[in-house]
Specification:
Rhomboid family intramembrane serine protease; membrane; Rhomboid_protease_S54; protease; transmembrane helix
């Protein structure tokens, strides 16, 4: 079962800074510090097999299981071929705190000489283990270590594990960070990790396992989200078996669904080696923290209300898209106009309105709507590409924006270092202010230089000298070109720069 809230669009106004930082940290840890662990583990296992440790620890492990009355594990161990038993012990005792403690105490050795020999051989192996980053920071069952209770939440066992957790972190972070603020959000995330680790330790105390992953901390966000958003209807995606769809329901309804799912799996599917215990503990911890935040008035209700208003438009947006697919332009236009009136800066609505006018061959509406779309100040690369395409279409249809609007557009894109877009705005080279256009072309050339795009830098300098030969920026362009190509003849004499 998958339930994922997808309720608030990502924009500059709602950008979750701390969520983004947490995602980057998790990715950095996985692809950075954890990346060498596979080779380090191989070296560790090889060292164990080449040492005499197996000679001492294999019989000690058998006595240990017998003393713990772990007959299931003992029976499994006895079915392992004798030649493979050292490797089995090395693998299965890496996080067995009780076994290591029993070895160190000497209680698992019948002969003191064997114990002394083991004490001589073991430190080198422990040093090898300490080279494995994951083993130094994961949560070990039956051990209370405050650092590991947090650090294990930044480790992952594989790329799929990482991607799944980061997807939920992004979706929940957008909703929770905006509702409680960045500082409190970070506190909920870290304390959720501690709560999840504590639940796992309580459930698995006495076992020899280990846990890692951000899912416990993310579960804390799930619990906090349900309580903080409370009875506010939210839009979420669900997937059960082969059935999936979008549904809107009060956020608090998700709490028993999420928690019940984890508890049921903990009881019925504990053998799957998934941290259902940590998930349940995280959800409960997050719900408690969410209740405290609500009770102490530390919730941004305006953010939640704004998100609710945004969500109520989704039905009209979906219906408008359906009308567009059926080429029912008038019906789509009516719905889109309503959305644009309520949310004038919503890019996807403005783009859809422009396309309705274009497809309906309404040149007047096409020009006006295109201008309003171009006026949206966005740094999203995909949205900027759409604006460039709309600008090209308006040029081709002889509906180009006014020169002053075009220059304003070029300035905005230059300020944002969107150089391809800025050049698209400047390309026609028309307007009532050649001096301003020359200045913008020169800024564009310098922008390409700063990005080390040498070919584009020289090309723009040449265009500047050809189109605005009388402007001071043309003299500067000639000077830079002369510096680049070794004083080659490129036009009138170079004016000394002051």
């Amino acid at each position: 079962m998958l339930i994922l809230p997808l309720h608030h669009p990502l924009s500059r106004a709602t950008f979750p800074l701390v969520t983004t930082v947490l995602i980057l940290v998790n990715v950095l840890v996985f692809f950075g510090w954890q990346s060498g662990d596979e080779a380090a583990m191989a070296r560790t296992q090889q060292h164990y097999l080449q040492s005499d440790l197996g000679r001492y620890e294999v019989p000690a492990y058998e006595r240990y299981l017998l003393g713990k009355r772990r007959m299931d594990l003992l029976e499994q161990f006895k079915h392992v071929p004798a030649s493979a038993q050292p490797g089995y012990v090395a693998t299965h005792t890496l996080t067995d705190i009780a076994f290591i403690a029993a070895l160190r105490s000497g209680e698992l050795f019948d002969d003191e000489a064997d114990w002394n020999a083991w004490k001589v051989a073991r430190p080198a192996y422990d040093a090898q283990i300490d080279q494995v980053f994951t083993l130094r920071h994961l949560l070990r069952s039956s051990e209370i270590d405050p650092w590991r209770m947090v650090s294990s939440a930044f480790l992952h066992g594989g790329i799929v594990h990482l991607l799944g957790n980061m997807l939920f972190l992004l979706a929940l972070g957008l909703l929770v960070e905006g509702a409680i603020g960045s500082g409190r959000f970070l506190g909920v995330y870290l304390l959720g990790a501690v709560g999840a680790s504590a639940a796992s330790l309580m459930w698995r105390w006495g076992e020899a396992g280990a846990g890692l992953g951000a899912s416990g901390a993310v579960a804390g966000l799930m619990g906090a989200f349900c309580v903080v958003w409370g009875r506010q209807p939210v839009r979420f995606f669900y997937w059960v078996g082969v059935v999936f769809d979008y549904v809107r329901a009060p956020a608090i309804w998700l709490l028993p669904l999420w928690l019940g799912w984890e508890v049921w799996n903990l009881i019925a599917n504990d053998h799957l080696e998934i941290g259902f215990d940590a998930h349940a503990g995280g959800i409960v911890s997050g719900a408690i923290m969410g209740a405290v935040l609500v009770a102490t008035g530390q919730v941004r209700h305006d953010f939640i209300r704004d998100a609710g208003t945004q969500a109520r438009t989704d039905g009209r947006w979906q219906r408008a898209q359906l009308h567009l697919c059926r080429m029912q332009l008038a019906e789509a236009d009516r719905l889109l106009e309503e959305l644009a009136l309520e949310q004038p800066a919503r890019f996807d609505v403005r783009l859809a309105l422009y396309r309705v006018a274009r497809n309906g061959q309404r040149s007047g509406a096409m020009a006006g709507r295109g201008a309003r779309l171009l006026a949206i100040d966005t740094l999203d690369s995909e949205e900027v590409r759409e604006q460039i395409a709309v600008l090209a279409e308006l040029d081709a249809a002889a509906l180009a924006p006014k020169p002053s609007d075009r220059l304003a557009l070029a300035r905005r894109w230059l300020d944002a270092a969107q150089l391809d877009a800025a050049e698209a705005a400047l390309l026609p080279g028309s307007g009532n202010d050649p001096s301003e256009q020359a200045r913008l072309w020169f800024r564009l050339a310098l922008g390409w230089r700063d990005q080390r795009a040498d070919d584009a830098h020289q090309r723009v300098l040449r265009l500047l000298t050809e189109r605005y030969p009388q402007q001071p920026e043309a003299d500067k362009a000639r000077f830079l070109l002369a510096e680049l190509i070794g004083q080659e003849e490129i036009g009138p004499a170079v004016t000394v720069l002051r």
